Amino acid sequence: MKKMRLFLSLAVMLALVGALLSSCKPGTQGTSLIMGTATTGGTFYPVGVAIATLTTQKLDKSDGIRMTAISTAGSGENIKLMQKKEAQMGILQSLFGSMAWQGKGKYEGKKVEFLRSMTMLWENVEHFAIDAKFKKNGNISDLQGIKGKKFSIGQKGSGTEVSGRIILGGVGFQVDKDFSLEYLGYNPSASALQDGRIQGVNIPAGVPATAITQAFATMRANKIVVLSFSDEQIKKVNTNYPVWSRFVIKAGTYPGQKEDILTISQPNFLSVHKDVSADVVYKTLKTIYDNLPFLVEKHKATKDMKLDRAILGLSVPLHPGAVKFYQEKGIKIPAELMPPK
Question: By C-alpha distance, which of 201, 199, 289, 209 is closest to 253?
Fold first, then answer.
């Protein structure tokens, strides 16, 4: 964890130095943007890097817009970085956006008013995986079998931890009481499961998730189980924050996976600080949607990104630059997604 914090601090410092050297302000020639993602074993990081690479390649010479994606602890830390203006953008779970904008849950009484949305990205698919020796029916209720044992719920303060707590609480678990919690990133979680140092993991990510692929390949499919959810369990999970829906991980997605996994997912979206200029947000969105094949080539999770789905499931009002872009494309924007005056 200390190493991760040091890495993050260095990455932010280097990015900020780059921004200072460019002597720029948002909305002028020479704009440097920092995007918070998550740990390297999930999907936030590679997709964030792809978006940053694309933006810089297409807009640096013509508009002086450069972007850097940095590894972080995920949604919670990305919001903190934007609040401190150490980042201007961040990839967030829909759950975190909903809590932050409404001032509920983790943000009770502390509404995050600077937050704006740009676009939906992909579905964040829940992978609750356990050692196969604890499997009974392949359902999330199989976590009963590892009560009292070690379970990695994600890095502290991350979207992984918060969403994991809400999901498990919704299906009847008392997380702190029922499990011996480990706070590991995705790749360390997968490695610990393979080594038998933990018995279960929580890895929400776009499909295919690198860490889960690693675990399936190393442990073999008969040694690991990604748990499913029943329709009734989905209803319970959505009691307070109705952001999850059914997601089917098709057989063959992971090495040796012979059957579909009936799990759940929530949307992820690209957020931005309200102080970033409308021109920068507009040009960044235009670049993304003019070059979707580039993103799909970099990560399969982006294959479902389409203009007609760009604002579906957003839990935070749009940035004015995003409003301009979508209105030009003929997309009708609901009142609740219009920026506050």
Answer: 209
